[in-house]
Amino acid sequence: MESRGEGPGAAGDSGEMAAALRGAKQALRAELRRRLRALSEAEKQRQSRLLSRKVIGHSKYQESQRIAVFLSTQDEIKTEEIIKDIFQRGKECFIPQYKPQSSHMDMVKLTSAEEISSLPLTSWNIHQPCDDDVREEALSAGGLDLILMPGLGFDKSGNRLGRGKGYYDIYLERCMHHPKGKPYTIALAFKEQICDSVPVAENDIQIDEILYEDS
Question: Using one digit for the tens of pLDDT, what is the confidence trace for 60-78?
């Protein structure tokens, strides 16, 4: 008799599927880290400049007032020019504040582009306000219009592979409960981060748009 998703057999199947998905994600992360290590600093800067221009010219960016943007690590698109432009246009800028030893992240208000260099560094070498630095959290007030997102890998269907902590998936779930609803999401990627297919689970949230050199 066929299993209809009930009983111990189904539980075993779902456990095996979860393990296979974890394994597929780990293998792809290793491959993507290898690709990123092979990129020269000059090439990262070249693609970052090109993507900054794409973002600044994007209609969704231009019509958004409250924008969340990541502060880049060594192997991510550099966002400094975008952040400067946000302030030059009089928009509001929010940056991630990650809570260590958890999957909780807030998007907190940045007062100027110049402020970034004075913020403390995390163990990941990312500037962010310290825990006792009380700032406006985007969802406590007017929500967000746009989130510019990092990631390790992406496919052209909008699937994203993060670093395994789930920060952005959990934050986007919180956005969906805000009166303003889910903001438009744009991921910024080196072309080397684009994959044929990214393995995803049901709770992985798709990105609205992925920007890279050839997009």
Answer: 999 999 999 999 999 999 9
pTM of the full predicted structure? 0.89
Across all residues in the chain, what is the average pLDDT? 90
User: Poorest-confidence range of 73-77, 128-132, 153-157, 195-199?
Assistant: 128-132
DSSP 192: G
Q: What pairing do the DSSP bridges indicate for beta strands 92-98 and 105-110?
A: antiparallel
pLDDT at 165: 83
* Nearest alpha-carbon partner for 200 in 16, 18, 9: 18
Cβ count near 67 (within 10 Å): 27
Question: Across the strands, what pairs with 108?
Answer: 95, 137
Cα separation, 25 vs 40, whole angstroms: 25
Which residues contact residue 77 at a Cβ distance below 8 angstroms, ignoring those fewer than 6 apart? 44, 47, 48, 51, 150, 188, 189, 190
Give buried/exposed letters for 95-134 (b at 16+ CB in 10 A, else e): bbbbeeeeeebbbbbbeebeebeebeebeeebbbbeeeee
176/92 Cα distance (integer angstroms): 20
